[in-house]
């Protein structure tokens, strides 16, 4: 018997990103905070426009998996998506590539960090990557100063494979980027 895929964990529900106005508003909400922008999009922080939100949505179409991370709608409906607290993805895999590898991305609204949601969401994402999509390797990158992300990534099994020196320009300074 083929196992049924689940789109939830004990505390989270994963909803599709479908490009509706609500999704574009979520993208803008996620990146409205300059600190969240700095964590999720290396480069200078700036106001996120409707055009950038649409570009982000168009990019998700190239991903093998892109989901909004949600809290359950209610205790009575634990598998129904409620409030969106973040976003994550598995990037594209080159057609016909024998390597079966991709990268991941994840971001949360600031008020939903430090609650264990990142660990829970990444564990689900990696299960999808290896069991559902039969990937061989998932990689990622983060700025070296992002100690919180580095701790979560190590907790779910990522190893730091290297550092790119002076790789990211943020807020007037060069920063190293850690490759996972």
Question: Outline of this structure?
Answer:
By secondary structure, this protein is of the alpha+beta class. Helix content is 29%, strand content 32%.
Kindly describe this structure.
The structure is a single chain. With 180 residues, the chain is α+β, with helices and mostly antiparallel strands. 29% of the residues lie in helices and 32% in strands. The chain has helices at residues 21-30, 34-40, 50-60, 117-132, 147-155; strands at 13-16, 65-74, 77-90, 101-108, 137-139, 141-143, 162-170, 173-179. The strands form 2 sheets. Strands 1-2-3-4-5 form a 5-stranded mixed β-sheet, with helices on both faces. Strands 6-8-7 form a 3-stranded antiparallel β-sheet, covered by helices on one side. Helix 1 (21-30) crosses helix 3. The radius of gyration is 16 Å and the shape is globular. The protein starts with 12 loop residues before the first strand and ends with a strand.
Topology:
Elements: E1 13-16, H1 21-30, H2 34-40, H3 50-60, E2 65-74, E3 77-90, E4 101-108, H4 117-132, E5 137-139, E6 141-143, H5 147-155, E7 162-170, E8 173-179
Number of helices: 5
Series of secondary-structure elements, N-terminal to C-terminal: EHHHEEEHEEHEE
Strand content: 25-35%
- The total of beta strands comes to 8
The profile of the biggest β sheet is: 5 strands, mixed
Physical arrangement of strands within the biggest beta sheet: 1-2-3-4-5
Uncertain spans: none
The level of helicity is: 25-40%
Rounded Rg: 16 Å
How far apart the termini lie comes to: 35 Å
> Which descriptor suits the 3D outline?
globular
How much is the average pLDDT? 89
Sheet/helix structural class: alpha+beta
